[in-house]
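Feature request, filed as a ticket because there's no other form

It would be nice if the structure record came with a short human-readable summary line next to the tokens. Right now we just get the raw output. Example of a typical job, pasted below so the devs can see what we mean:
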Amino acid sequence: MTQAARGLPIARACELLGVSRGSYYRDRQRAPRDQTALQDAIETIVLDHPGYGYRRVTAQLRRQGLRVNRKRVLRIMREETWLCRAVRGRCRTTQSDHAHPIYPNLVQDRPISALDEVWVADITYIRLPEAFVYLAVILDAYSRRVIGWELSERLDVSLTLTALQRALHLRPTPAGAIHHSDQGVQYAAGDYVAQARQAGLILSMSRRGRPRDNAQAESFFRTLKVEQVYLTEYRDLADARRQLRRFIEQVYNRDRLHSALGYRPPVEFEELLVA
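Raw output as currently delivered:
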């Protein structure tokens, strides 16, 4: 109802708005039901994807065929305290004091326009009840899909090498692709470099102390921490591996909407490219 019609008798307000009294009362009765249905739909999405902000929730609602604007979704999520809050933490995983060669940064300011043009690799830590474990990932920078990963109690080259081997199993012909990482010994070690070069990958490394040089990997880890790690208490390494596999391979790669991909999941985005 318009501001001018508020406070008028119902009959006069309906006359000004050009609607019948029956339509007016039906709309009044329908509004609470519509609001409740929308709240239920939002709650379902938030429970499935605890780290979603209001923009991704809106995109998911639209994918489900609901016509809704972001401001309304934001208001409901604020009222229901469904807006996520990021928890921040730091742990040093880059060991760059070594004697191995360092490779120039080949992706700085480089536009990426195709799959297997740039792979990005990085490591993060995850806290268990009595220890830390380490997660190494490789993503396709164009689709944001995790194409290889490994979880281990050891922060060494076997961690990153296993993630690389899994990526090469999924994408066996990346010849000419740039492999971008930090300057850590886990990526500069001879065994890792030999495997990457044998596959035809071209090595690239971030500048020292510049994590933003590997922005896609940093973004993935931020999503992983907020939407999975900070919400979960892992019993042990096996439990962490099982739950992280579900999040990475199903939730992140196949279900989660990515704003950079037009609010599509990575696997769906890749399938559209080759369709």
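Something like this underneath would help us a lot:
Confidence is low (pLDDT under 50) at residues 1-8, 27-32.
The CA atoms of residues 87 and 259 lie 21 Å apart.
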